[in-house]
Amino acid sequence: MFGFKLRPRKNARSAQTAKDRLQILLAHERSAGSGPDCLPELQRDILEVIRRHMKIDKDAVEIKMDRGDEWSSLEINIEFPSQGRA
Amino acid sequence: MTTELKQEAPENSKIIVVTSGKGGVGKTTSAAAISAGLAQRGYKTVVIDFDVGLRNLDMIMGCERRVVFDFINVIQGDARLKQALIKDKRLENLSILPTSQTRDKDALTKEGVEKVLNELREEFDYIVCDSPAGIERGAQLAMYFADEAVVVTNPEVSSVRDSDRVLGLLSSKTARAERVGAEPIKAQVLLTRYDAQRIAKGEMMTVEDVLEILAVPLLGIVPESTAVLRASNEGVPVTLDEPSAASAAYMDAVGRLTGEQIEMRLESDRRPGLFGRLFGRTA
Fold first, then answer.
1. Number of residue pairs across A and B with CB atoms under 8 Å?
2. B229:A58 CB<8 A
3. Distance of CA A74 to the CA centre of its chain
4. Which of B95, B74, B19, B29 is nearest to B56 (CA)?
5. CB-based contacts of B94: which residues, under 8 Å, 6+ apart?
6. What is Dmax (Cα atoms) for chain A?
7. Which of the four pLDDT bands, split at 50, 70 and 90, describes residue B8?
8. Which chain A residue has the Cα nearest residue B68?
């Protein structure tokens, strides 16, 4: 008989998850102070700077992002050929 | 590898469009569940969001925080395809290609879409295109290069009517329709939000009613289920979430898409309530 109370709670948890996810996402989308498409430009600029110093391939750049509540991270991986061949 | 020569083994990549005409019938939920289901079965699968400006597949797939580049960036040459694809964290052979949230539908071009699809064909077994609602540019381009179509339909008049319209477009305004001698797109109906109780009461059209009107094969019947909202709240495709009648129905549909013969079955997540149990069917 008391079981019925447990079920709505489970759904309430998923609703809270939904709200949290939306709040984080929308905060990022609304601020968009960074401009909608700053990332392609950022990538171009980074490549350009690095190319001044070493030879790298256009495809060798990997950019990852993780938007969080408190902080976000931007991870940029650039592969370049070993010194011998550069 | 040229795409013109694609007439080989079934292992060849297939482009499946998930479409409906009407909004809110469960296209994105179905695209997410089907692509995850295909990946669970071991196929290398990618799911693409064609709803430019109203990106939502990323939320349903739970990767919204990881979007860096998108489909439009790739089409316009601002990013490489490899950079825009997001690898699912739960299934290693599942990838997501999100769309742009800031551009509009004009950013999609037929040539651009074709180029991206051809590149994806080289790597993936299944390419699932999540169409926007409506029948305009985004929806037309989502279906244009498809080999198969999943037409998501609710047993409700406006949804069935829109599905009929979409079926007409699939057989006239697509690459397969325009190419002389090509096999037409294989279109199947996926009936969603199916409520057996309301059908029993005669309040809702039956499967037979809908199929008689649309005259295309049935891919599956997904019952109305609380599991669907829970999965979208959590950003988990239904087929990856806890087992439910909806996840079982989607897995069956996925099996049929890959060519298996699976009998139609109708389960329901709805347990009879206290009154239902006390008073049986008369309640």
1. 62
2. no
3. 6
4. B29
5. B35, B36, B39, B45, B46, B47, B87, B88
6. 75
7. very low
8. A65
Residue in chain A lying closest to B101 (CA)? A36
CB contact (8 A) between residue A65 and residue B67 = yes
The SS3 call for residue B186 is: strand
- B3 at A interface, C-beta within 8 A: no
CB B95 within 8 A of CB B35: no
Question: Would you state the pLDDT for residue B95?
Answer: 98
Q: Least CA distance to A9: which residue of chain B? A: B230
Q: Does the predicted interface ipTM exceed a cut of 0.90? A: no
Q: What is the DSSP letter of A6?
A: H
Q: Do the chains contact at B65 and A43, CB–CB below 8 Å?
A: no
Question: Nearest to residue B140, comparing CAs of B85, B191, B149, B180?
Answer: B149
Chain B residues 7-36 within an 8 A CB cutoff of chain A: none
Written as one string, the DSSP assignment of B18-78 is: EE-SSSSSSHHHHHHHHHHHHHHTT--EEEEE--TTS--HHHHHT-GGG--S-HHHHHTTS
Q: Which residues of A touch B232 (CB under 8 A)?
A: 18
- Which residues on B lie below 8 Å from A61 (Cβ)? 83
The closest CB to that of A17, out of B64, B82, B233, belongs to: B233
Burial of A57 from C-beta contacts in 10 A (0-12 / 13-18 / 19+): exposed
What are B240-264's pLDDT values in tens digits?
999 999 999 999 999 999 999 999 9
Question: What are the tokens at B24?
Answer: 């809110």
Please name the amino acid found at residue B106: D
